Task: inverse folding
């Protein structure tokens, strides 16, 4: 069910961070990639995970990286099965429930460091479960806690499990575990992240409303789509609550802590749907088997038959859905900003400062960030600048061209990269189209790059700048006052960036100026390419205005 290529754009951010660490052997004091908040301290709580992902990609390539991530997820599911049986669940029950989590979890099995939660949580839970009887488990938890603090900022979950283990440990034996709990908050300082781990956690707490409003993965499952994929979360949380309540006299602190924290995380954000298998399933399976063991044989047989049918049907549905899913490698995807970013990496002048849409940051980090000081961008999804910078950019600067121009003067912005059909960037795009201070330097139908009229961009504009064409297929602006020589030169430049759009414009000109036979050929061409044009509606309006469609 998991993708066998890298499909998540955020993986590019993680690989870029790993490459930076590999090149510099340390974390820089300030962010070398962004320029909008120069006073913000650079930090990376996931530095070890990023380094590991980059190392795997460097030696094994994209498919090796995808298989590595699937192997990590498989290890995590095996440990979750082990943890459930340690809690007292039957292997068949645990495996059935774990399988039902795959339709929601499998698409998120990607080269991101939250994948490590799948094995860190159940392994730490196993050590916490056995800690009251085996003192050596505390030493294992200490080593695993340090590793966790260097892989993902969720390491504080381990402190909850450690506290649960201490709760049921005899008082005379609590000393080592209490020492570990006391030093637990200092673990980030034993690696490279230090205070930045807590800066990020605090920003995630304070800025959660901003992220939920702008990022779909931050939305709660209760307010987002995909109900069928999220159905096991609802079923297991309700079932777990009922059976744990019935076993309240016998439930131990570690499984109870796992279940409660897992439900809180999974319902707070879709990002944490991964933890349903490793946090909610083990205690639920154990409590369910304990409850069913006290029921009559006929009830157990009925539950087994109905449960088996439900699990098989749901897993078959999930597998069929995965087979129908179109999977495109993020390294080869041409529908996003990758072509535009590659263009900038090849032709933008050194020292360029790029105003960009938030979601395009991963491509800028990976494709244009090999030498970070050469091309720097405004912000990206690492959240390294904090929710306040993101909110100001989205809600104050993008909708207000005058605020954007003040930001240009304050920070020395030289380039602007925008999606043609971005929901929040239309006001700024209209401003750039009409402004004499900015000129179109790249257009592929999906993304545009505008360069500021300045000496630093002179070579770029002389080689690629457009004088007539605008980033739209509403071509009625070509009706009057257009220099044929400049239009021909612009079309030649457009061919290097989007042959399709250059041909469409030529077909439109043929419809406008040609005889019957040329009009027929142009119309046939337009009919063939129409489904491939991202802005076909604008072209349709222009053609209707000329009566060409009829």
Result:
């Amino acid at each position: 069910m998991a993708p066998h290529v890298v499909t998540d754009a955020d993986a590019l951010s993680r690989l870029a961070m790993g490459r930076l660490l590999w090149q510099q052997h340390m974390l820089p004091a300030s962010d070398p990639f962004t320029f909008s908040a120069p006073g913000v301290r650079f930090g990376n709580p996931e530095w070890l995970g990023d380094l590991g992902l980059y190392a795997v990609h460097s030696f094994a390539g994209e498919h090796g990286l995808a298989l590595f991530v699937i192997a990590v997820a498989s290890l995590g599911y095996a440990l979750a099965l082990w943890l459930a049986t340690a809690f007292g669940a039957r292997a068949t029950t645990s495996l059935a429930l774990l399988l039902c989590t795959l339709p929601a979890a499998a698409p998120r099995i990607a080269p991101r460091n939250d994948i490590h939660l799948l094995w860190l949580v159940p392994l730490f839970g196993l050590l916490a479960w056995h800690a009251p009887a085996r003192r050596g488990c505390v030493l294992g938890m200490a080593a695993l806690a340090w590793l966790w603090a260097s892989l993902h900022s969720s390491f504080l979950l381990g402190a909850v499990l450690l506290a649960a283990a201490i709760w049921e440990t005899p008082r005379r034996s609590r000393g080592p575990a209490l020492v570990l709990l006391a030093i637990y908050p200092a673990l980030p300082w034993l690696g490279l992240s230090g205070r930045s781990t807590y800066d990020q956690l605090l920003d995630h707490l304070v800025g959660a409303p901003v992220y939920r409003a702008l990022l779909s993965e931050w939305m709660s499952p209760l307010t987002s789509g995909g109900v069928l994929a999220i159905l096991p979360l609802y079923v297991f949380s309700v079932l777990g609550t009922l059976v744990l309540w019935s076993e309240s006299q016998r439930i131990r602190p570690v499984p109870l802590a796992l279940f409660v924290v897992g439900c809180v995380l999974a319902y707070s954000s879709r990002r944490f749907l991964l933890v349903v298998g490793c946090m909610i399933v083990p205690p639920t399976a154990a409590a369910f088997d304990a409850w069913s063991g006290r029921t009559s044989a006929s009830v157990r047989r009925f539950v087994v038959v109905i449960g088996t049918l439900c699990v098989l049907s749901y897993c078959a549905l999930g597998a069929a859905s995965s087979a129908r899913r179109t999977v495109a490698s993020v390294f080869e995807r041409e529908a996003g900003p990758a072509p535009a970013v590659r263009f900038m990496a090849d032709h933008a002048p050194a020292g360029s400062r790029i105003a960009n849409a938030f979601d395009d940051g991963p491509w800028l980090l990976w494709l244009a960030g090999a030498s970070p000081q050469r091309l720097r961008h405004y912000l990206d999804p690492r959240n390294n600048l904090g929710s306040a910078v993101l909110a100001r950019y989205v809600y104050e600067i993008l909708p207000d061209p005058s605020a954007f121009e003040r930001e240009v003067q304050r920070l020395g912005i030289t380039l602007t990269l925008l999606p043609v059909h971005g929901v929040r960037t239309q006001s700024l795009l209209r401003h750039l189209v009409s402004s004499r201070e900015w000129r179109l330097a790249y257009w592929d139908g999906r993304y545009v790059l505008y360069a500021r009229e300045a000496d630093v961009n002179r070579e770029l504009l002389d080689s690629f700048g457009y004088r007539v064409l605008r980033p739209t297929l509403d071509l009625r602006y070509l009706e009057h006052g257009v220099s044929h020589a400049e239009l021909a030169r612009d079309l030649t430049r457009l061919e290097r960036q989007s042959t399709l759009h250059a041909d469409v414009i030529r077909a439109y000109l043929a419809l406008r100026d040609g005889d019957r036979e040329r009009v027929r050929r142009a119309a046939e061409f337009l009919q063939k390419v129409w489904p491939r044009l991202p802005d076909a509606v604008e072209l349709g309006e222009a053609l209707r205005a000329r009566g060409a469609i009829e």
The two ends are 47 Å apart (CA to CA).
